[in-house]
Design goal:
heterodimer; A: alpha/beta; 6-stranded mixed beta sheet; two-stranded antiparallel sheet; 41% helix; B: alpha/beta; Nucleotidyltransferase, domain 5; 5-stranded mixed beta sheet; 36% helix
């Protein structure tokens, strides 16, 4: 390689540096923890929605509920103390099945949902999550753990239920979720909405 | 030949093959750019569910599904905002004790474009905000610091969540700090 040929070649190293920086940037923002969030949920808009408070989010345990257009609730699976895994598919299923256990399609060819099953499964879900949280809190609480009332209050105080519901979800489903959630013993809720920036 | 070349020029710099690496980087960059899907800034509306009494069912096997919820999702409230939202119509009223004031209703929504529909509903929501705001102000003048600011929303089963949130939004902007939800009157139909 003579010095003459080398001089004509453009110096690609800074370009490569720049590209790698960009790659890093896009990697960092796209791989953000999205496991709690369902992309299918289009949130409603609200002018009074406040920006998320990071400190509050870190201090509390968050339980994300994603309610889709047809009322399906997507949740995160969890493992309880006995090692049983719940909601592996991330879904509280209320789809009707036939005797063979196969999904029975409705008149429109889509799986049929049964509101009564849904109500029951919401109820069980919240009780399981509450019990699971209670087991974790009991370990940290120590001496106070035998006091049932204190334990329940501690769980309710340290857990936020984050509801991300689709714009077109029915009030019936939202109401069911809120009431089952409260019945299980949770009290802190956070409804998510996109901030309306058009009219500040 | 090559060996001799190395012998004579021991200081030669081994160049990293930059060009293939650059090609690869561009590929990766392109991939991340097309999969980049910025989600809109998410905000929160915090609310507290009122403390429940002792749960009626002690374990999963004794849950009575046919039972109506034992209490409303609510603290005692001054006003109940009644929302009746159907495909074709939207009605807002305020119930205070037993008295119901209809704020207005929009009809023929099914024929409208989503934009017109939203404008029509927003008009009513603005009216709701003004009415609730005036009533809260009157109340504060009357009761001073003791004035409570609770409001409850009662919507029908088919009310869409975006409508519900905008009603809630109107209540909060009117100055009410506690917004509760009442069961839909047509829940079990």
């Amino acid at each position: 390689m003579t010095s003459h040929g080398g001089m004509d070649e453009p110096n690609l190293v800074p370009l490569l540096d720049l590209i790698l920086q960009l790659v890093m940037f896009f990697m960092a923002i796209t791989s953000f923890a999205k496991e709690n969030i369902s992309e299918a949920v289009r949130l409603p808009q609200a002018q009074s929605a406040k920006p998320l408070d990071d400190e509050e989010l870190h201090r509390n345990e968050l339980v994300y509920l994603n309610v889709e257009e047809n009322g399906d609730m997507r949740v995160r699976s969890f493992t309880d103390e006995n090692g049983t895994q719940w909601y592996l598919h991330g879904k509280i299923d209320d789809v009707l099945t036939d005797d063979a256990g196969k999904v029975a399609p409705g008149p429109d060819g889509k799986p049929q949902h049964e509101p009564r099953l849904r109500r029951e499964r919401f109820d069980k879900y919240f009780q399981r999550v509450f019990d699971n949280r209670a087991q974790l809190v009991r370990r940290n609480l120590g001496a106070d753990a035998s006091d049932d009332v204190k334990l329940k209050a501690a769980v309710a105080q340290s857990t936020i239920i984050v509801l991300r519901a689709h714009q077109q979800a029915d009030y019936r489903d939202i109401y069911e979720i809120l009431s089952k959630c409260r019945r299980a013993g949770f009290s802190k809720m956070q409804l998510r909405a996109t901030m309306d920036t058009a009219h500040p | 030949m090559a060996l001799r070349h190395r012998d004579t020029e021991p200081d030669v710099i081994v160049a990293l093959p930059i060009v293939p690496m650059l090609d690869l980087s561009f590929q990766i960059l392109f991939f991340f750019i097309i999969t980049f899907n910025p989600s809109r800034a998410e905000g929160r509306m915090s609310m507290n569910l009122p403390a429940s009494g002792e749960a009626k069912a002690k374990d999963l096997n004794t849950v009575d599904l046919s039972a109506v919820p034992d209490r409303e999702l609510d603290v005692p409230s001054d006003y109940v905002v009644l929302v009746r939202s159907y495909d074709d119509s939207f009605t807002l009223s305020i119930r205070n004790a037993e008295k119901v004031d209809e704020l207005g209703s929009a009809r023929g929504l099914a024929q409208m474009s989503p934009k017109e529909r939203k404008a029509e509903i927003d008009k009513l929501l603005e009216k709701l905000r003004e009415t609730l705001g005036t009533r809260l102000k009157e109340k504060k003048e009357r009761d001073g610091d003791k004035a409570t600011d609770n409001v409850k929303i009662e919507a029908n089963s088919k009310t869409k969540y975006d409508v519900l949130v905008s009603v809630m939004d109107a209540c909060i902007r009117a100055g009410y700090s506690q917004v509760g939800f009442a069961p839909p009157p047509d829940l079990n139909q």
